[in-house]
Amino acid sequence: MASLRDPADSPPVAAVGPDSGVGPVPPADARPASPGPPGLPGRAGTRPASRRPARRAGRRPGDANTRQEILDAARKAFSENGYSATSLRAIAARADVDVALVSYYFGRKEQLFAAAMELPVSPGDVIERAFAGGVDVAGPRLVDLFLGVWEDPASGPAMQALFRGAAAHEDSRRALSEFAAKEIIQRYAGHITAAEPLRRASLAATQVVGMAILRYVIRAEPVVRLRREDIVADLGQTVQRYLTGPLSTSELTH
Questions:
Q1: Chain segment 90-102, per-residue pLDDT in tens
Q2: Do 92 and 101 meet the contact criterion of CB atoms below 8 Å apart?
Q3: Using CB atoms within 10 A of its CB, is residue 223 exposed (0-12), middle (13-18) or buried (19+)?
Q4: What is the distance between the alpha carbons of residues 1 and 245, in angstroms, rounded to a whole number?
Q5: CA 213 to chain centre
Q6: Cα angle for residues 169, 173, 175 (degrees, 5° grid)
């Protein structure tokens, strides 16, 4: 049956031609795809690109060997330049990877140093746990946690090897020295609210590190025979005094 619609009711149709300014409408499958997020095709109904985009220039991507290559580069960088002068970006350049991969595998520089030097624990994590209850009770807890690291069969031998290696090799000693100053002593100081926080932190560190060397590295017999609970109680009081107690005038830095 013929249409009963009046042609006058139909909307005007734009002219198509070279003088109209309107070109012919392309078929649907020839229209460009709507843009989508980077790395994803356009909206449904569009034809995906048939050719894979070329990888952008820059550092090579990670592979199965990337983590070990970063560790090797970090060991060399820390040994040659020390802890303070070594950056994650410099390590990434030495390993020929993007710096984001270094952070992906190891996080902060402190954590990368711990992995490169085969530290069994992150000293920063131990310190945060020690001060979690407040600086006023941190002394005995700091001693107890530190002794626990040295007496743990999974971490104690590695700590002994680290200290012995630092004593025998200048590069290792320098890197460990800078690490201890920045990531241990300064972290202590960051929790201390009393006057002279850096001096107090330094004195506290001498107590726990000195005990560790005598008891676990040198193994001085009288110190080895001390009971752990007595060390925590007695040495903890001394460490607590350094953290929060009064210091003599000669101990203060003016």
A1: 999 999 999 999 9
A2: yes
A3: middle
A4: 105
A5: 28
A6: 120
Query: Exposed, middle or buried: residue 176 (CB in 10 Å: 0-12, 13-18, 19+)?
Result: buried
Residue range 17-37, pLDDT digits in tens? 444 444 454 444 444 444 443
Q: What's the CA gap between 48 and 19, in Å, rounded? A: 34
Give the position of tokens 């991507």.
61
Helix, strand, coil share of the chain (percent; to 5): 60, 0, 40
Torsion angle of alpha carbons 174, 119, 104, 94, nearest 10°?
40
- Residue 130 is predicted with a pLDDT of 95
Closest by CA to 29, choosing from 42, 19, 20, is: 42
With a cut of 70, list the residues of the chain below it in pLDDT: 1-63, 250-254
Question: Coil, strand, or helix at residue 60?
Answer: strand
**Residue 97: helix, strand or coil by DSSP?**
strand
pLDDT of residue 46: 46
Q: Model's pTM, two decimal places? A: 0.62
**Exposure string (b/e) for 5-37, b if CB count within 10 Å is 16 or more?**
eeeeeeeeeeeeeeeeeeeeeeeeeeeeeeeee
